[in-house]
Write a structure and sequence with these properties.
Helix content: 25-40%
CATH architecture: 3-Layer(aba) Sandwich
Number of helices: 8
Strand order of the largest sheet: 3-2-1-4-5-7-6
Low-confidence stretches: none
Structural class: alpha/beta
Strand content: 15-25%
Number of strands: 7
Mean pLDDT: 92
Number of domains: 1
Order of helices and strands: HHEHEHEEHEHHEHE
CATH topology: Rossmann fold
Shape: globular
């Protein structure tokens, strides 16, 4: 039986982010910090699998951003908390995106592809290519199964309110993620990793975890080290 993402408590991951304490919270802070930096100075952005809208809430107010997701309840939360001028949340029911060609300067797909069958991901990436403007950037993150991530996943399954055991369908390593982007037409593809020990240091001190972030990124950028993969591709 397919996992029902409507079973995730409404706003769960945003509430974790807003808690401002603990390892899981710091994990999301550091993750989104890296992704926002990769998005950079653009005019129009699409966040695919936006959930409760946390990433979009962190983007500059003058940037037009749209979040899409399959979970109506999470989108309602996102609209209530983060909707407004330059912020829109749209429900989708298929891999086909309801936007014209060449609509966006950048697209983020944050820890979504591991939840999907590979053939579905391929169809979605073809849509990303279509709706990106020429020269537009695709930003993808996913757990790095070529690192110690499987151990982290095991601990999360046992200790967290949300388990990944049924959710993670496709398990990527750097080479397979790179091949996926290239197979769908993306150029200048680069895959690295990020996220090492810094979030876990929040269990000792929130400020200590932040202070360790730059060093963490220097050491975790190699695909076999960082717990998350980061893929960048240009249209």
């Amino acid at each position: 039986m397919a996992y029902s993402y409507d079973s995730i408590p409404v706003g769960f991951y945003d509430e974790v982010f807003q808690r401002n304490q603990g390892i899981q919270c710091k994990w999301h802070h550091h993750k989104f910090r890296r992704i926002v930096g990769e998005i950079g100075d653009v005019s129009r952005h699409l966040d695919f699998g936006c959930g409760p809208g946390t990433l979009i809430s962190l983007l500059p107010n003058n940037l037009s951003a749209i979040g899409v997701d399959i979970a109506a309840s999470q989108l309602a939360y996102a609209e209530q908390h983060y909707g407004g001028l330059n912020r829109e949340f749209v429900k989708i029911d298929s891999p086909y995106l309801p936007f014209p060609d060449n609509s966006f300067d950048s697209i983020s797909c944050v820890e979504v592809v591991e939840h999907l069958e590979l053939n579905l991901t391929t169809s979605i990436f073809a849509e990303f290519f279509r709706v990106l403007k020429p020269g537009g950037k695709l930003i993808v993150t996913t757990p790095n199964y070529g690192s110690l991530w499987p151990l982290v996943e095991l601990l999360v399954n046992r200790l967290s309110r949300v388990s990944y055991e049924e959710q993670h369908i496709t398990k990527f390593r750097a080479r397979s993620l790179e091949a996926l982007l290239k197979a769908n037409g993306f150029s200048s593809v680069r895959v690295s990793s990020f996220m090492g020990i810094s979030p876990f240091l929040a269990g000792i001190s929130w400020k200590f975890a932040d202070g360790a972030w730059p060093l963490d990124q220097a050491f975790s950028r190699f695909p076999g080290v960082g717990l998350l993969l980061l893929a960048i591709g240009l249209r």
